[in-house]
Design brief:
mainly alpha; 3 helices; Non-ribosomal Peptide Synthetase Peptidyl Carrier Protein, Chain A
Length: 83
């Protein structure tokens, strides 16, 4: 899974339990890494601004914010729909 550096940097800001030296894997559990509901809302806003996408209702689910891979795939899908 290849995402860009901006995505990883943004995401890491909301993962307080993920050590800076620890790799962010495609299947890293975001909730286990410290992403809580408030963090998810803040992350959502940051991602929308950074990637010029709008998370539509069906993308606003716990599953979307489960792992970096699922979240990145959602962003890519929203970018494709928006272009």
């Amino acid at each position: 899974m290849a995402w860009d550096q901006k995505f990883e940097e943004l995401l890491r800001e909301y993962l307080p339990f993920l050590d800076g030296e620890e790799p962010l894997e495609a299947d890293t559990d975001l909730r286990d890494s410290g992403l809580d509901s408030l963090g998810a809302v803040e992350l959502l806003g940051s991602l929308e601004g950074a990637f010029d996408v709008r998370f539509v209702d069906e993308a606003l689910s716990l599953e979307t914010f489960a792992t970096p891979a699922v979240l990145w795939q959602t962003i890519e899908r929203l970018q494709a729909v928006g272009s």
